Amino acid sequence: MKVTHRETPLAHRPGAAPEERTLRVAVRADRRNPGVPFDLDSVLALRVNRSAVERRAATLPTRRTVKKEWQAAWLLRAITCLDLTTLQGDDTPGTVQRLCAKARRPVREDLLRALGGADLDVTVAAVCVYHALVPAALQALEGTDIPVAAVSTGFPAGLSPFAERLREIQASLAAGAREIDVVITRAHVLTGEWEALYDEVRAFREACGDALLKVILATGELATLTNVARASRVAMMAGADFIKTSTGKEPVNATLPVGVVMTRAIRTYHEETGWSVGFKPAGGIRTARTALDWLILMKEELGDRWLRATLFRIGASTLLTDIERQLEHFATGRYSAAYRHPMV
Amino acid sequence: MERSQATIAAIFETMDYGPAPESEAPALEWITRHGGEFGHFIGGRSVRSAGGELFDTVNPATARPLARVSQGNAADIDAAVAAARAAFSAWAALPGHARARYLYALAREVQKHSRLLAVLETLDNGKPIRETRDLDVPLVARHFYHHAGWAQLRDAEFPGYGPVGVVGQIIPWNFPLLMVAWKVAPALAAGNTVVLKPAEFTPLTALLFAEIAAEAGLPAGVLNVVTGDGETGKLLVAHPDVDKIAFTGSTEVGRAIRRATAGTGKKLTLELGGKSPFLVFDDADLDSVVEGVVDAIWFNQGQVCCAGSRLLVQEGCAGRLVPKLRARMEKLRVGSPLDKAVDMGAIVAPVQLERIRTLVDKGVAEGATMWQPSWACPTEGYFYPPTLFTDVSPAATVAQVEIFGPVLVTMTFRTPAEAVALANNTPYGLAASVWTENINLALDVAPQLKAGVVWVNCTNLFDAASGFGGYRESGFGREGGREGMWEYLKPEWDRGRGTGDGYVAATAPHELRGAATRPPSPVPLPPINRTYKLFIGGKQVRPDQGYARPVRSPDGRLLAEVAEGNRKDIRNAVEAAHAARDWARGQGGHHRAQILYYIAENLSRRAAEFAGILDAMTGCAEKAAAAEVAATVARLFTYAAWADKYDGAVHHVPIRGVTLAMNEPVGVLGIAAPEEAPLLGLVSLMAPAIAVGNAVVAIPSEAHPLAATEFYSVLETSDLPAGVVNLVTGAKDALSRVLAEHDDVEGVWYFGGAAGATAVEEASAANMKRTWVATRPRDWSDPRQGEGREFLRHATEVKNIWIPYGE
Predict the structure, then answer these.
(1) Do B20 and A65 touch (CB under 8 A)?
(2) How many residue pairs bridge chain A and chain B with CB atoms within 8 Å of each other?
(3) Bridge partners of B435?
(4) What pTM, to 2 d.p., does this model score?
(5) Has residue B728 got a pLDDT over 60?
């Protein structure tokens, strides 16, 4: 892709792992998408042909596949892009602790050794919880550099008072969260109030300070793919570090057609501004096969730089178990069972 | 697993794609089971070639031979045609439901053996397993399912029609198995039996299919496969006991087949080459356009007759599109076609690879900018990278010639009108793609494109329910849907082939005459001299040369003299018709109906006069003459009735969208009217042509032209726009030939003698215009023979417009 790279893509440099680890914790200020001034024309100029996008989404997984060693390696990579998540009303410090233990050691040591991945430092990208559980997560992750992400701004509907939503971000930061997953006001999208959406996300970004801002579009509630493209564009213009598909609470979660539209929006934004924005599909991603599809989407539509946690996250929880089963199958040749892997 | 350990760590960093091979073992085993050698499939079993000659079929991805197959010779073709003939009557006599069960079984069997068929196809052809697995084989099964339905419904939906007989089918190497389905399914559904000649490069899946069909219980002889090269195909085309030829392949071979079958009475459908345009307007979803281009020209290595090989981009967005396209090309993967993660496999054969290279070199030499991705193709086997030409002018060789490879040329346009002009600036007319988010624009442009298939915001979509086939030199006839079924049916009253000769000997070649012999006048005054001219462009005009042709009564009396039209008169008439050719566009059928009713009304007022003329010319007796005039008036009513009722269809294809099958006028139609029924015959052909919006150049009955020449004034007083009907009297065969040779005439109907019919079919090959010749006289007064959908079908082309929707 002939585009202006503002920086050397770290992902391409062999042995970049240690540096990447620090980047994963907090994106350096000079790398972050600072946003650009609101430009309504660039929003309205976006065109999305739904049938063509669906065709692309349907054929992506049939055009590309990875097998054997490649599949195992890609699945390990998928784990490193995982925002291991629990967002249940009945979450307790205990369940979060269990989740965090899994975040530290997502794959059984023996299995990792068998795959020759013992030195790869395979941990998840982040742990994602509600605000109230940030302290429990931080405690459980102590001694690691795995960041805690808090969903915020009136998650999942985002309809609490605006000032409250900003205070929620501040509270989570104060509690130690280093990544904030915010939700947008869907009504701004559905009524075409693009500047209002811009202002909202801009305010979230300012409230986030140095913390990573992931903007959840809740695409399942945006009605059309054109709206998804426009909302993506506005969120990026307003300074999103990541754009994210879903809260996991909408009736329709992350779908590949939505992913195609959002990754293309990221690509166009990158081509036009030079800034790289990350992508996070979330909700309904439960199988290793699906995770691979999303990796393929990233590689095909955006390129290898977007195959790292710096620019790609998957929001999921039970996905990890399925990946472990597939890895064990590769290592042993036998189909695995969930009970063989420590539960999430 | 030891071996892999280091690799996983490395791949974890590089995140490369690895190999993902599909096993070739089951397909190779099938070949081995046959000892690596194949005979023909005749009469339900494998038969060694009478000549014993074998040739290699090669895996293009490795350049290594796969198997040896038989070179079909005359004895083989004889045996296959005899087997098909022997099987015909029983097969045709089966109830539709029985044939439906067979076709249903074929669909099921294809699904059962889907992977074997897919792998074998990939081995023999070189196309990616993804395509054979996800497109070719599912479409094959779908075709048989769909046509099982037509077998079931044939009697109800095509009353008065029956099978053609023994059908010879010759298919190409680019979709070896899919073309088997496209050819065999409708043929069998209609009740025909088949001799199929697969392509020399790719015969294996047809043989496997024949085996599967036999195992499924298809009666022996219903489907016969004879392998071989072009010579084998020629023998099949020339075989006297074949009733129809269906061919898919190059325009060059199609032309040869048209000439070879001229005058034989064999029904013919041709699906030929293309240089299909891919139009991108500046409001299109450009990222989706890029994927559309991938599907258009890098599908099957670009070896697709309907490949979107000319990318026409609105100037304002070309600067954005081309970099996107190059970035996408960089990500395409070319490699072993058995790898499940490649986009492009191998080119079918060295000769084809060489052709691509030569044409690309020529494109560069002619000054276009050529771009290919940075990566390299495999060196073993026949591979060619995706290639993009920019800065191409319409005059460039690469913009005009069908390359049949992964080579795209790009041109720009400014306006929709210019886009249409560029798109149609080709002798071909197979398919087109239109990309815009503006439905007004899409639906305005689609009907203006000379193409049998138009894909709106999509490309290369196929389905058994939708007709596929071309305009112009892309051939004629449709495959798929109801329109495809007609190609394998013929009217029951018209059984047999080429037996009649309706040509009634006309007067001797024109005599130069003064005003010498005149019929004796009953009145004391001499009659006012009557001059019959030609009717061109809405005016009565003198012929180019001042010759007249005598018209005599059966007892030899000179009735009158009509103008002796010549080739220049035909030329002028065609010019006039062209000026009027879009007369019906944007006008509803109601408008055309009113004109036809008005013609009927005006004719009716002069019924007695016309009856007198007919009687005088043919001696048919007053009563019969009056009946002919009355029937003519009724026929005009028939087509006035049809004018707003010959509807297209919305096909049920498996997409969220509509596929509109639009009946479009052929354009400028040449019509040579029959000698029998000089008035009714002429009007029976002219009226349906007008009813659907054609412009017509007609040659009236040579022996009895006076009804036509008197008809000028009927037309003049009936609000018919100038040029819609042009009438040129004279020597029918000579004038018909001029029409058939005229490249700006899109169809010719010839009703007359065998020699004239042959000449018309032969001459039509130059621009592959549609022809309809009939040498067997019809009973024009019988509505089953003289009017109806058969005529309307010949007067139209079906254009299928695919419109996926959804916001």
Answers:
(1) yes
(2) 118
(3) B280
(4) 0.94
(5) yes
Domain boundaries, chain A: 15-334
Mutation pick from A3, A44, A47 vs chain B, by most beta carbons of B within 10 Å, is A47
pLDDT in tens, B423-475: 999 999 999 999 999 999 999 999 999 999 999 999 999 999 999 999 999 99
What does the block give as tokens for B263? 């005058």
- Catalytic-residue membership of B418: no
Among candidates B15, B291, B341 on the partner chain, residue whose Cβ is nearest the Cβ of A74: B15
Is B246's pLDDT higher than 70?
Answer: yes
pLDDT at A24: 43
Minimal CA separation from A110 to chain B, in Å = 13
pLDDT of residue B523: 54
Dist CA B293 CA B313 (whole Å): 12
Q: Catalytic: which of A181, A241, A293, A322?
A: A181
For A305: left if phi > 0, alpha if psi spans -120 to 50, otherwise beta; the answer is alpha
Looking at domain A15-334, which CATH architecture does it have?
Alpha-Beta Barrel (3.20)
Which of B285, B290, B329, B658 is the best mutation test for A, with the most CBs of A within 10 A? B285
Q: Which two tokens stand for residue B457?
A: 């915001």
Predicted complex ipTM: 0.93
pLDDT at res. B524: 64
Instruction: Please compute the mean of the pLDDT values over residues B645-670 and round it to a whole number.
Output: 96
Mean residue pLDDT across chain B: 95
The 3-state secondary structure of chain A reads CCCCCCCCCHHHCCCCHHHHHHHHHCCCCCCCCCCCCCCHHHHHCCCCCHHHHHHHHHHHHHHCCCCHHHHHHHHHHHHHCEEEECCCCCCCHHHHHHHHHHHHCCCCHHHHHHCCCHHHCCCCCEEEECHHHHHHHHHHCCCCCCCEEEEECCCCCCCCCHHHHHHHHHHHHHHCCCEEEEECCHHHHHCCCHHHHHHHHHHHHHHHCCCEEEEECCHHHCCCHHHHHHHHHHHHHCCCCEEECCCCCCCCCCCHHHHHHHHHHHHHHHHHHCCCCEEECECCCCCHHHHHHHHHHHHHHCCHHHHCCCCECEEECCHHHHHHHHHHHHHHCCCCCHHHCCCC
pLDDT confidence of residue B497: 60
Q: How confident is the model at residue B367 (pLDDT cuts 50, 70, 90)?
A: very high
CA distance B458 to chain A (A): 7
A117 contact B CB<8A? yes
CA distance A237 to chain B (A): 20
Q: Does residue A280 carry a catalytic annotation?
A: yes
CB contact under 8 A, B16 and A70: yes
